[in-house]
Give the backbone structure.
Amino acid sequence: MPRTRHDRLDCSPGCAVEATLQFIDGKWKGVILWHLLGGTLRFNAIRRLLPSVTQRMLTNQLRELEADGLVARQVYAEVPPKVEYSLTERGRTLAPVLNALKAWGDLHGTVQSDAQVRDAA
């Protein structure tokens, strides 16, 4: 079920952040976009890269990304059907955001206890 989106994003100073996050707020959207930065992928290739995602969830996330204009879906009329996904020009503009998220995750992505955080400070 698609999430309800704001009609206007001028509600507060942080709404530009909220506007950005609403495009990548699905559980798998950021990871899908990250993998598509490397180039065009077929549905099953994406599925292999994300072994924990169900087919239904992956389909829904890809549909939402396509509806938001971030991912392009190319269907080839052949048997069996061939479907490829790639980033649109708009989707490619998220590259710096995704790279920043990866860099942050590389530095802070491990789960630490409160004691470890205090000891590190």
Q: What stands out?
A: Strands lie at 41-42, 71-76, 82-87.
